[in-house]
Specification:
By secondary structure, the protein is of the alpha/beta class. About 45% of the residues lie in helices and about 15% in strands. It has 3 domains: about 1-140, no CATH class; about 145-265, 3-Layer(aba) Sandwich (Rossmann fold); about 285-465 and about 500-525 and about 570-635, NAD(P)-binding Rossmann-like Domain (Rossmann fold, 3-Layer(aba) Sandwich), CATH 3.40.50.720. Keywords: Membrane, Transmembrane, Transmembrane helix.
Length: about 650
């Protein structure tokens, strides 16, 4: 009971304050109407008038519960409710005036002018005292507690909403000093007492001198390049950067302090979304049976998700990794048209079961061993999986009349310096020469596939660089080292890499499958390469630490097979444009399929016997530009092992 009295007491205080305002407002109405002439006022029964006013207001206050709101949270809706109640009160007062007996035909209680003045006075008093309490409370218990001075990027809808939520949140320590904007129409304006200035280094330096220590990005659609520019300026000025999620992701339509997130390195490496002709991809995939190998991996699983968006007849997700494949299936809706299939691409009998049962129309081949140092230690495994697996799938695709076979390759296949890259280049050579062969001489039809309606399978290859967030990539490793307090390990101070996002990479694969007519190697404009040591330093600074002071960077030396710079084309290759400026076709050397087939068979035979040196030597014979780097296989190269690459 005591708890209830404590909870209800403030409501009755507000109720009494509201009634007090009614008495003051009515008294003011008479004073103002008669210019403070007490003689004129004395002709009216003030006690009766005030009593009626209090009684009418009390009834309506209880009915509408305008006193029940928390004053410090007064909103536009509360103001509207007060105006509505006061309008009804005035109507009742006028009604009472009309039915009350008059003396000599004149008003004796509530003349029209008195009611009008009362209406203005009561609204002014009730609204102003609420706003005063709200502002006083906000200053005493919110503003004074805010110790972190921040600048908000974007004075648009999302920025204004974020500013209001941050300012009104008592648990937030952030005080917004100013908006920074790129929109010329907003620069120089003052919005809700907060000035809007141009988003440049000069103004950020000025705000830094005023105490700004945080930049909050409130625009969820900020261009990646613009985000990078702002981050570079802030890191130089030692201003921390955080980002607000878009308002539709706010919890219960409010922005909590823990929803402000630090800008991460992946966001800075991403580029603006590249729009490709996805409607054509939809036409290509809709109603088709699609096989995805390596479906449990980073690229394969995203290909599965993107293909499902285009309403295929079914997606066959094939992988030999049981648990990741199971996790992929349960991550998709029950209605998803997907069939998981556990199988090793090197097991021809198992793979043929897929083609016999499902007869896929399209194959997206993403299964491969990809880790360079590991494959350098196990070259025979790289050949069996990457080359034999591709050969089996390619031959089955032709035998069973697959329309298109899209292979995921890598920039490491260009002028390879390691076993993994060379194995992918051999796979490229095999599929390209195979396509040229079947195009000229007709399909190769094994007896096991007799009776099928054969088509010339179109073989298409895509090459791209490192994928952000993929299993075993450099960024997760750096994050783990950061969490452990360092040091961050970089192989070489000059090493650079290209980066792209998983969805972007998979869009390329799907688009290549659509635009490809067979035999092409599609390469992607991946922007500028990123120096890995610069990436490490930026990650350290984004975490609020100083490189070399708080977190050390150490250099471990290039790993076996690793090279400083990745390439998308070798020196003998040129490109041809496509209908999209970011996607090009590499013009590569053609190979004779009969010769390639014989050499690949010999290579696979050596690999299956796990003759390591012999296997790598054969790889170098097939791919003459394969020059090992920092590897035991350098002695197999025609020149000495110290050859400068």
């Amino acid at each position: 009971m005591a708890t209830q009295r404590i909870r209800l007491a403030p409501r009755w205080i507000i109720f009494l304050l509201d009634l007090g305002c009614c008495i003051i407002a009515m008294s003011l109405a008479f004073l103002l109407r008669w210019n403070f002439n007490t003689t004129e006022i004395s002709h009216y029964p003030l006690i009766k008038i005030l009593s009626i006013t209090v009684a009418v207001n009390a009834c309506l206050l209880v009915a509408f519960k305008t006193y029940a709101g928390i004053v410090r949270y007064t909103s536009v809706e509360d103001t509207g409710r007060i105006l509505s109640v006061n309008t009804i009160v005035c109507c009742i007062l006028l009604l009472i005036e009309n039915i009350y007996p008059k003396e000599n035909g004149t008003s004796v209680l509530f003349p029209n002018s008195i009611v009008l003045i009362y209406f203005l006075c009561i609204n002014f008093l009730l609204i102003v005292y609420r706003l005063f309490v709200k502002r006083a409370f906000h200053y005493l218990f919110t503003v004074r507690r805010k110790s972190v001075k921040a600048v908000l990027y974007s004075a648009g809808y999302e920025g204004l909403l974020a500013k209001k939520m941050i300012s009104d949140n008592q648990r937030s320590e952030i005080k917004v000093l100013a908006f920074i904007e790129d929109n010329e129409k907003l620069i120089g304006k003052i919005i809700e007492t907060t000035s809007v200035v141009r988003a440049n280094k000069y103004n950020l330096e000025k705000l830094k001198r005023e105490g700004a220590e945080l930049l909050i990005i409130a625009d969820p659609y900020i261009r990646k390049q613009r985000l990078n520019d702002l981050v570079d300026i802030c890191l130089e000025l030692n201003i921390r950067i955080q980002q607000v999620p878009s308002s539709e992701k706010w919890i219960n339509n409010t922005l909590e302090p823990d929803q402000l997130k630090d800008v991460n390195i992946e966001q800075l490496l991403e580029r603006d979304v590249i729009k490709i002709k996805n409607e054509q991809v939809g036409k290509e995939i809709r109603g088709k049976k699609v096989l995805v190998t390596g479906a449990a991996g980073s690229i394969g699983s995203e290909i599965v998700r993107q293909v499902l968006q285009y309403n295929p007849a079914i997606v066959i997700a094939c992988d030999m990794a049981e648990t990741p494949l199971h996790e992929l299936r349960i991550s998709l809706s029950e209605e998803a048209k997907i069939k998981t299939f556990i199988g090793d691409i090197c097991d021809k009998v198992r793979m043929e079961q897929i083609f016999e049962i499902y007869a896929p129309d399209m194959v997206y081949h993403a299964a491969a061993y990809k880790h360079v140092p590991l494959m350098e230690e196990h070259p025979s495994a790289a050949i069996v999986n990457n080359v034999l697996g591709t050969k089996i799938l390619a031959e089955l695709s032709v035998s069973y009349g697959v329309e298109k076979f899209v292979m995921v390759s890598t920039d490491k296949a260009v002028n390879p310096t390691n076993v993994m890259g060379a194995s992918k280049r051999i796979s490229e050579i095999f599929t390209q020469s195979y396509y040229k062969y079947i195009s000229r001489s007709g399909n190769i039809t094994p007896s096991s596939a007799s009776g099928l309606a054969h088509r010339n399978t179109k073989f298409i290859t895509t090459r791209f660089g490192n994928v952000l967030g993929s299993n075993g990539s450099v960024i997760p490793r750096f994050k783990k080292q950061l969490e452990e307090g360092g040091p961050i390990t970089v192989t070489h101070p000059e090493i650079t890499r290209y980066f792209m996002t998983i969805p972007e990479a998979c869009q390329l694969v799907l688009e290549a499958g659509t635009m490809g007519h067979g035999g092409e190697i599609f390469v992607f404009d991946m922007g500028s390469p990123v120096k890995i040591v610069d990436l490490a330093k930026k990650m350290i600074r984004l975490s609020g630490k100083v490189p070399e002071r708080d977190i050390k960077i150490t250099y471990s030396g290039l790993r076996p097979g690793e090279k400083l710079y990745e390439e998308l084309l070798n020196n003998s290759e040129n490109t041809m444009p496509t209908y999209h400026e970011k996607i090009m076709i590499a013009t590569v050397r053609e190979y004779d399929f009969a010769s390639v087939y014989t050499q690949v068979e010999e290579l696979i035979n050596l690999a299956q016997k796990h003759f390591l040196m012999e296997t790598v030597a054969k790889m170098k014979e097939i791919v003459p530009e394969f020059i090992s780097n920092n590897s035991i296989y350098q002695k197999l190269d025609s020149s000495n092992g110290d050859r400068d690459k």
